[in-house]
Specification:
The chain is α/β, with parallel strands linked by helices. It is 38% helix and 28% strand. The longest helix is centred in the C-terminal third of the chain and has 24 residues, at 162-185. The radius of gyration is 16 Å and the shape is globular.
Length: 186
């Protein structure tokens, strides 16, 4: 089986204190820490994900370069620098704080204005606290659909759907790589 290796830039965006840094930590090192860590600017983490396509005799080894971006919307000029070159994003809101959910449209617009029509996931975080959610599952799904995003309910604390969020992004990126490769072969 032929192995194709690529590195792709993936943004983790959303309001402050929604759990972006905790999601990255859970994804990269499978750990959770209750202490709040303010992201100043951006923090870049990397992890390899592998995707096999046996029917095509190909595997894609994808180095995901995950950019955990500062959550203050007032830092728009800084965001523009970080958003350049992104090929996908995970947009995070905190299900227990409605205002973070209401801001997702603005975040998606900003990311795509700079990065273009890249794929994304809407991660409604803190699923371990669903009893305290201020948004409904139907609202999250409708918002995600309206923004062209895949909806997921995640918990950095329990690990629920964290790997799945990154896997959805990785599968989309891998499929695009294969489609481009097939088009070039024609």
């Amino acid at each position: 089986m032929e192995v194709l290796e690529f590195e792709k830039k993936v943004l983790l965006i959303g309001e402050a204190s929604v759990g972006k840094t905790s999601l990255v930590r859970r994804f990269v090192i499978d750990r959770f820490d209750d202490r709040y860590i303010v992201t100043i600017g951006t923090k870049v983490s990397r992890k390899v994900m592998d995707f096999e396509y046996p029917g095509e005799g190909v595997a894609v080894s994808l180095m995901m370069s995950v950019w955990d971006v500062i959550g203050q919307r007032s830092a728009e000029r800084v965001h523009e620098m970080y958003f350049k070159g992104a090929e996908a994003f995970i947009l995070v809101c905190d299900g227990t704080r409605r205002e973070t959910f209401e801001a997702v449209g603005d975040w998606a617009f900003r990311a795509r204005r700079v990065a273009g029509p890249v794929p994304g996931v809407l991660a409604c975080n803190k699923a371990d606290l669903k009893a305290a959610f201020k948004v409904t599952e139907a609202e999250v799904r409708a918002k995600a659909q309206g923004l062209g995003l895949a909806p997921l309910f995640t918990s950095a604390k329990t690990g629920e759907n964290v790997e799945e969020a990154f896997r959805k992004i990785g599968e989309g990126l891998s499929r695009a790589i294969l489609a481009k490769r097939q088009a070039a072969a024609r």
